[in-house]
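Anyone up for a design puzzle?
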């Protein structure tokens, strides 16, 4: 259940609700949503208890009976899809219904020359958001680990030069502030999807968060991870399906497109697809990127490189500049073809953090 307090309720008023609930053996967890103080409960309040709570706590405005274990992420709470606004000024992009975003860039930032060359081609191809890893979660400790803060600075400069908002991964709490300072979207990688302290930290940073699905996470676990971020009061969460573990090594992972549609039925949050990490193969990125547009996803994230054979990371799945241009054109044609089928009646915009 979700208890929504009146606008302007104080910390003491929230504490009073939690204390009253504790008195009837119900545990309430304070959170924030759409500028309001809320209290989340996993226990059910019957009619009698709801009437009593309204009487003893006049600051309680509404009590919603949300059945899903994730409350703020659920479509029960917000039936209309949310739009997350990323970047500012002439680098502002909306992620949500009515637009299909393409995030593109190298797996990892390798040098100023490589990043700026890639950013130029990302812009030229008509993609909307520049990606590039500065902190890389590598399977081997002996693989290139990323350029760190130096890479973040290059990413920010490239984004400003080409008027593109940026997205990059943050792997540990110690670097959340640095990543939030230089990038427009904080990416939580698949391996960190259930790093709960990190989820809280990125939530508190107040910037949009791209939450990748863990390689073995169920849709419910993924949405519970999103709930950690939302419960901090940060509602700018974009989900990203990037393939789950399968048994056939032909593809790196198995792209769960059915899961994308299913998760869209469960949540109001925008959902994008990463066909690069899902497949691990350049030749499969365009078909699955087009498939993401066909099923009504809100966008894609793809890796591209001007010279993939020289890439320090994920060259085999990085598409070439001309392929990116074709892919961007293709997803917009597919989106236009299916628009009438998926177009929602309404969307509610998530406030951009100050
Ligand atoms: C990435 O996007 O650079 C990445 C490492 O992806 P994932 O977390 O999905 O493996
Ligand atoms: Mn990669």
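Challenge accepted. My sequence:
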């Amino acid at each position: 259940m979700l208890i929504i307090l009146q606008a302007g309720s104080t910390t003491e008023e929230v504490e009073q609700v939690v204390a009253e609930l504790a008195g009837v053996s119900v545990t309430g967890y304070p959170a924030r949503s759409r500028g309001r103080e809320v209290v989340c409960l996993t226990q059910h309040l019957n009619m009698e208890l709801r009437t009593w709570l309204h009487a003893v706590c006049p600051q309680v405005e509404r009590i919603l009976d949300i059945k899903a274990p994730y409350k703020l992420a659920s479509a029960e709470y917000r039936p209309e899809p949310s739009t997350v606004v990323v970047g500012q000024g002439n680098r502002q992009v909306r992620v949500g219904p009515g637009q299909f975003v393409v995030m593109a860039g190298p797996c990892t930032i390798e040098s100023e020359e490589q990043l700026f060359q890639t950013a130029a081609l990302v812009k030229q191809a008509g993609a909307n958001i520049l990606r590039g890893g500065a902190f890389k979660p590598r399977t081997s400790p002996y693989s290139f680990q990323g350029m760190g803060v130096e890479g973040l600075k290059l990413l920010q400069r490239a984004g400003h030069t080409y008027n593109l908002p940026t997205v990059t991964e943050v792997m540990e709490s110690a670097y959340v502030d640095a990543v939030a300072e230089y990038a427009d979207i904080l990416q939580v990688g698949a391996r960190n999807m259930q790093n709960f302290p990190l989820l809280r930290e990125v939530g508190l940073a107040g910037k949009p968060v791209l939450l990748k699905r863990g390689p073995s996470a169920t849709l419910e676990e993924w949405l519970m991870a999103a709930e950690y971020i939302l419960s901090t009061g940060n509602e700018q969460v974009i989900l990203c399906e990037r393939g789950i573990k399968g048994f056939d090594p032909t593809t790196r992972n198995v792209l769960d497109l059915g899961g994308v549609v299913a998760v869209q039925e469960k949540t109001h949050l925008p959902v994008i697809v990463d066909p690069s990490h899902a497949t691990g193969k350049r030749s499969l990125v365009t078909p699955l990127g087009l498939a993401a547009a066909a099923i009504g996803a809100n966008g894609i994230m793809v890796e591209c490189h001007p010279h993939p054979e020289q890439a320090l990371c994920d060259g085999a799945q990085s598409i070439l500049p001309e392929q990116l241009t074709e892919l961007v054109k293709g997803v917009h044609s597919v989106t236009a073809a299916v628009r009438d089928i998926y177009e929602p009646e309404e969307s509610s915009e998530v406030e951009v953090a100050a």
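A detail worth pointing out: Residues 107, 277, 303, 313-314 surround manganese (II) ion (ligand 2) (CB under 6 Å).
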